[in-house]
User: Fold these one by one.
Assistant:
Number 1:
Amino acid sequence: MKWFLVKILFRIVCGNGKHAAQFDEQLRLIHATDACDAMEKATAIGIQEQESFFNQQQQPVAWQLVAVTDIYPVSCDMDGAEVFSRISEEQHPALFIHAMQLRSAGAVNRCYAFAQY
């Protein structure tokens, strides 16, 4: 088993979504057999951590998985630990999501390259 640092991207939608687009980027440590396994585990974590709830103003808030965008091999001993999180507001959410999905496609390709790691 090896350690990988992965970035998971979520979109945060409040109320009717008529607000500046918000995104949360999280870096997580994943213990996996290879980069492809790390990608699968990170995706499962992202799916599991999608949630909906009501905020203090009784507006619905939804955290939606967008993509796993990056995978890097590392040495560490904290499986699934969140090591970074950044919430951002984006003026052009469709462009931001598209760019992150392109990064995700690159991460999938890298997972196969790292499979030999």
Note: Residues 52 and 61 are 5 Å apart (CA to CA).
Number 2:
Amino acid sequence: MLIFSENITPRLRYIIHFFSQEISDEEWRISSDAEEFITSHKPKINYSNHHLNGNCLHIVPHTILFENIIVEQNIQCTKNNGLTIFFRNESETGFDIFAAGFYLLSRYEEYLPFTPDKHGRFPYQNSLAYREGFLKKPLINYWLQQFKNQILSKYPDFTFKEKKFQFLPTYDIDMAWSYRHKGFWRNSANVVLDLLTLRFWEVAHRLKVLAGMQKDPFDVFDWLDELHEIGKLNPLYFFLVAERVSKFDKNISPKNPAMKRVIEQHSREYSIGLHPSYRSNEDEKVLISEKGILSEIAKEDVQSSRQHYLKMNLPETYRRLLSAGIRKDFTMGYAGSNGFRASVASSFIWYDLKNEIETDLLIIPFCFMEATSVFYKKDTPEQAFAEMKQLYNEVKTVNGMFSTIWHNNSLADEGIFKGWKDAYDSLIVYHTSCSHVGHHK
């Protein structure tokens, strides 16, 4: 595919690269040579305000891809062929799909002034996707489906990349055990607290687990192994290895031999990543230290991460990750609402909007986190399962990547998490029935 543009900018190169990677087996080329474009016999797109001779798809450009500033954009959403669009114009596509795609993928709106939530995060309520009602849709993937049809109407012999639906389950291991391996003083303090609050059943439970009479409720790793085997799934585990316990970082010490064994075992069997501590957001040295700790235990250079509490600010967080040697990040999603934060169910390269550069950081977005359903939406497990199915089907429709976040403690099937283990089991059953990979018993 040959693209004509009078002005070739980093923003334009970035979004054309994403489009070509998503729907084509070859890199699309951009040229500012009108004569070359007109005489070329290749499939081609005229991305300019001029009508050029020859059979080509014409997309009238919005100005955003030719700017190098970050300013509030005048966005009016309308419907086109049943899908929400913006930057509507006289393009054959009905709107500037390149500019709209760039706005959503770059997270342009997150660089504009906003009031952060209590953890310093961009609130989902501020997003265009939430305000316009498409947060639960991987809109860019739907646009790409229509775009392929528009290309075929011009070039019936054009071949597209075959994309397959993927289910990527991921887990944040904030605390590998509820009672075990916490040490005498942490357990003693918790027993005293439980006695003072008359939680006698909690004391009895803790003592039985510590005596070896019951399994620790957070230790669901064997059960997850069976689940992955049934669903033919390749999960990712993110480990919190903060060296100092704090209000938001309550993990088992990475120096603990049992914790080391869990990390070593999972690194042998699965892909693992770093769950950078809450504190690491304020101190890059802490981030680098934690990456080193996990890499040393796993005996591999860990290059994947997901922020604890999904604590992320653009561009600072991603720049810190790159500086620390992280090359894949799985934080792209909201804590307060499930859905598609970047309006896409595909991985994509992060574009540093302030430096105007395509980086080396690959972003793998998720669309469902059980903690969102439990703590923010106050859903029942049944309501959450219905939402999981809805999001699963949306992604399957566009052959995208359906990525979820669960925490091992939410699968303990007790307290506020009673019933959530069954909800997750039901999702795997649903997946196996959809993909015909077997049946869960």
Note: The radius of gyration is 24 Å.
Number 3:
Amino acid sequence: MRIAIIGGGLTGLTAAYALAGKHSVVVFEKDKDLGGMAGSYIVDWDGKKWSISKTYHHILNGDETTKNMIKSLGLDSKLHWKKVKQGFIYNDKIYGFSTLTEILKFPLPLADKIRLAKFVLFGTKKKDWSVLEGVNAKDWIIKEAGQRNFDVFFDQLIRNKFHEPAENISASWVGTRFVKESSSFLKSFGWLEGGISQIVYGLAEGIKNRGGKIFTDTKVISIKNEKQKKLIYEKNGLKKQLIFDVIVSTVAPEVILNLVDKLPEDVERQLRKIRYLSCICMTAGLKKEFTDRYWMNVLDKDKPFSAVFNHTALYEDAAPAGKSVFFVATYLMRDEPLWKKSDEEIKNIYVEALNKILPGFKYNIEWWRIFKIEYAEAIYRTGFINPPMFTDGLYFAGIYRIYPKIRNMSSAMEEGLAVAAKIEENVKNV
């Protein structure tokens, strides 16, 4: 069977990896580099080349799919676990939130801190969040954690993530996030020696070794959705076409809807309802280490970013000795002013704000990069329903189908494996 996979991120590469060797597989990626949000930079730094991911990535305790893939690619000896420290940026200060002593120092009344601790601990033990389907995050959090905790912590955190008020967001998604992330902070985070680019390169190499093809820097222009599907693409300024039996889309619904000439009305209607946030992530290499915190969520409403990650607090081999790498991320809509600014302007805005929190930050930058992700996060409003995986010879996989899971490497690869299994199932039933 001839299979086209649109999108060379983790979902597309995992699907191709699972299908290659049994079918004729071609992956189409519009960018020069594979990986999507799991892509990496190669940075010349102090006379050495460093592979540094374009956005923050870590491995949680429950990410079995990621751990299994790392083992499958022969990288398991490079997987390490580390207890990391987290914190919150509040009133231009970093407050630790990893130990009881640190939590007690946070500027909230003791009763609220006790209630917050109970709320988080409850979340790490709960396994079934389906009872919260149809419940919005605001009502649930205020009921369980109290109004003050909602106002100080959760209201801003949810706005940072979705740019929408908590009353519009599904409580079951927020709850699932608690299970994954809070339990990991109580234990350890995983990191891959040499960087996560090894997962991307390993998948690509495996696809090619199994006879699959990967076209990078290749733009899919249109898809004729008939029994024999005609895919027209452009590479090196030349337009070409190929015929496939099956096409798998791992790109955002808005993108695939502009490529396919026809879809069943009910499927098209479901896909058009899905909305995305974009993301801007600045990566900066610094002359020194500024904090031992790994993950710092932002509670201040006036900051131009949502979260700050000290990459080298987890990835111990990601910088020269004594130096560090920071990620600064913002989730936003594409019509917001920050999205439209140049890379230089974005860097300056971020650095000025960071310099108030980490004095001297702007004088210690040795290199920096800006990465813009147009379709970074599907917005899980209350009542969100995952669209179908299969219709009329077209398959859909990606982060807009993982609800109520959180978006990470594991859920991206799980989507790739699921769509590959669905294709195999349908082949057997023909």
Note: Residues 10 and 403 are 17 Å apart (CA to CA).
Number 4:
Amino acid sequence: MNKEVLFSESQRFKQWWLWGIVIAINALLLYGVYVQIMLGQAFGNNPMTNTQLIIVTLLTIMLAFLFLSFRLDTIIRKDGIYVRFFPFHIRFKYYDWQILSKFYVRPYYPITEYGGWGLRLGLFGKGVAYTVSGNMGLQLEFTHNKKLLIGTNKPTELAKVLSQLEQFKQE
């Protein structure tokens, strides 16, 4: 019964501007490879060697695939919260309800509180954040005064589940 999934969410980076930048950089470098290697013309005013251009192009393509692999998974069960920010966390991190002093859904300001999205360390005692988009998150406050914010795109559904858990814990 404790393994029953009460809430599940999987998120990826879907910001159009982020993917626009990644695609534009890769397209520019692939064009540079075509011009310099296939057509035999120097690409740019101060061109890289062919080897350097190929290495830089391959690295940016690998970076794009790394961004594609980023995924924030959150699962809530009666026994606790499971979270994984893949590929940084291969396995789920488990947080038992007993080590939490508070848990609630709240709005947050990604740029000013955490310096953006991703795996972040907050400023001025805000704790750690795992976020990929939006401005709503599950705030965990631990009994040892640490904090963790987990971003969510389903704040209403998550708040409802947390409310049911509070009632369950009081019975």
Note: The CA atoms of residues 78 and 121 lie 28 Å apart.
